Amino acid sequence: MESENQENLSLDYQSMMYEGVIYPPFIKAEALNELREKHTLRSSDIVIATFPKCGTTWMQQIVLTLLADGDGSKVRQPMGMSPWLEAWVSKQGLAAFEVWNPEQTGWNGLENSCDLDPDWCPPRRVLKTHAPAQLAPWVGGTERDGMNGARVIVVTRNPKDAAVSHYHHTIDLPHIFKYNGSWDHFLRKIWIPGKVESGSFWEWHQSWWKVCQEGSVDLLWISYEELLSEPEKSISRVAKFIGLEPTTELTKGVLAASNFQAMKQTAAEEDAKLVAIGKADQVKRNHIREGKSGSWTETFTAPQNELMDRYHMGECSRLSLPPKLFPQMRPLRKS
How far is CA 232 from the centre of its chain? Predict the structure, then answer.
């Protein structure tokens, strides 16, 4: 698998470094400092914490639809409705973000609020971060006092699928990362060594797994693979975690709104609206791509698979990460 445009090939992955962790180039260090020094979580907040390409948008859709009483028609822009803290503040500033009080003023104060449904806003803030636990973008970090009663949902995924998805994500955003190398180069030289957005996949997960094991934070650990294989059970877990009763009607509504065909169709419709009003630059190409698990087998060569297996087991051992946290590291057997 090679990138599509070889004419402007660049093996340099554009980024910025903060406290030893790689961030996308549009994230500003001063915004991260301000968040960690001044931004206080609210007790009603729901934070979705993920390593990139591990099911972030999917979980945003699920949580927002739960808060919309299962009405998926109200959740057409999950990324806009559930802002990425570091990116939003880097662009607009913390003072502007603090104006947003959804339970009082709806979308007022949120970037692109004019493009969101003015008739419905979740009663709670649903926030997103790709930060490792030690760089949690709020005052007090993951200490109990710092969390202030807020809840965190960590979504993980097997690293092989995550790496493939991350490669597509990177080459589909050439104006940001300016990277156009081959899949093999990305895997061996960028992704596995942790020279990619959010750094090392394994160190990132170790940071949040430690928080989970300490039990001092209200944290739900759930995998992409669970969401696929046991959708009703997974939605029920999420609903209970955020304090909702997972009724049959609610679960049914969330299932309908969060299946990948529905999400892809809605995303395409919203993207078409952006293009029509001259905002094509805001379209995220192929952001909702496949929604599968185990499709890494279509991309990995045997040597790449051996390399990933060896590195994965070594990092799990070094960081005391239970390998069971990452399902489907082996091809599924055909019945």
Answer: 21
